[in-house]
Structures are given as structure tokens and as C-alpha cells.
Design a protein that fits this description.
Layout (H helix, E strand, L loop, with lengths): L19 H8 L2 H18 L6 H17 L1
Helix pairs in contact: 2-3
């Protein structure tokens, strides 16, 4: 299953015709989009103990999966 076919923490993005990160991938350069993805990995890993716990770690993994999809 590709990263676009799943969502961690609900289904509000997968119910949309186009996910926000699909639109971002279309309008940003590859480097910009990769930076967005890795920035979100850093965000979720940095805050998991204080905010989202395991779900934040799963979100970080999801962003890493998307990053590997574009390489």
C-alpha cells in the first residue's frame, strides 16, 4: 500500500479527491516537497512524548514512507 492510500489518525485526507500533499507535490519542486516531508518527520518525532505518543510516531513513519516513494 502506498503512502497516499492510507492515513494515520483519521480519514479526513483519504476522503478527499486529492490529498493536500499530492497537490503540494504537484506545485513544489522535488527538493521543496522532500523538505516538507522530512520537516514533518522531525516535527512528529520531536513532539511525540508530549503530545501524540505512538500516533505521532506512526505519522512520522507515514511521512518517511511518502519520502521514500518519491526517491
Amino acid at each position: 500500500m502506498s503512502a497516499n492510500q492510507k492515513q494515520v489518525g483519521g480519514d479526513h485526507y483519504t476522503r478527499q479527491d486529492i490529498q493536500p500533499w499530492e497537490y503540494m507535490e504537484a506545485i513544489l519542486t522535488k527538493d521543496q516537497f522532500e523538505g516538507f516531508l522530512i520537516g514533518n518527520v522531525i516535527k512528529y518525532v520531536s513532539r511525540y512524548q508530549e503530545k501524540g505518543g505512538k500516533e505521532d510516531l506512526l505519522k512520522a513513519i507515514h511521512y518517511l514512507e511518502k519520502a521514500t516513494d518519491i526517491l
